[in-house]
Amino acid sequence: MEKLTRSEIKPLAEYERERAGFRSRIIALKSHRRIEVGDLITLVFENRETVRFQIQEMMRVERIQDEGKVREELETYNALIPDAGELSATLFIEITDADRIKETLDRLMGIDQAGRLWLELGGERCAALFEAGHSNEEKLSAVHYLRFRLTPEQQRRLA
After folding, report:
1. Can you tell me the distance from the alpha carbon of 77 to that of 123, in angstroms, rounded to the nearest whole number?
2. How far apart are CA 59 and CA 13, in angstroms?
3. Alpha carbon of 76 to those of 7, 145, 152: distances in Å?
4. CA-closest candidate to residue 88, choices 99, 98, 77, 96
5. How far apart are CA 33 and CA 23, in angstroms?
6. 81 with 88: CB under 8 angstroms?
7. Amino acid 77: pLDDT
8. Burial letters for 121-135: b for 16+ Cβ neighbours within 10 Å, e otherwise?
9. Sign of the CA dihedral running 32, 37, 42, 47
10. Dist CA 80 CA 106 (whole Å)
């Protein structure tokens, strides 16, 4: 999938004017790209539009207007756009009870290790490849970015 270019990212003032409609479209799009895995984990499969929304929202929240910072956001979030033969997803560990956050994350330690999470397509597993830096031996993040590299046969089955 083609990466986003700078020309596709709207200046802050222009985005503010268009935000309500764009946000509504993305919410509808994400509803079809969201999969709940049990009662704690949700995967949202990314594409160019979901990533563009994340960039625009980050710029909005952080009031980013400096061209260098915009390009940094673009570079960072473009990594979420899947390459050919891949699926890309954001994994959310959704804990609603604030008193149980640490306990729950501790229980899920290691979820990002090879072979712990996969897609199954026609009886064939495709392991999740987690982006580094979202956990260590002592701490697990509640948000992870991952990829699934599909074989041609898995791509055919998914289609």
Report:
1. 32
2. 11
3. 16, 12, 28
4. 77
5. 15
6. yes
7. 92
8. beeeebebbbeeebb
9. negative
10. 26
Residue type present at position 145: Y
Instruction: Quote the CA–CA distance of 44 and 74 in Å, as a whole number.
Output: 19
Helix (H) / strand (E) containing 21: helix 12-31
| pLDDT tens digit sequence for 76-122 | 999 999 999 999 999 999 988 888 888 888 888 888 888 888 999 88
Structure-token pair, residue 84: 């050919």
How far apart are the C-alpha atoms of 52 and 38, rounded to whole Å?
Answer: 28
In this structure, what token pair is assigned to residue 120? 């199954």
Residue 140: pLDDT band with limits 50, 70, 90? confident
Q: What is the pLDDT of residues 5-54, one digit of tens each?
A: 999 999 999 999 999 999 999 999 999 999 999 889 999 999 999 999 99
| Amino acid (one-letter) located at 79 | A
Tokens linked to 151: 């074989």
> Which pTM value belongs to this model?
0.86
Contact 40, 93 (CB under 8 A): yes
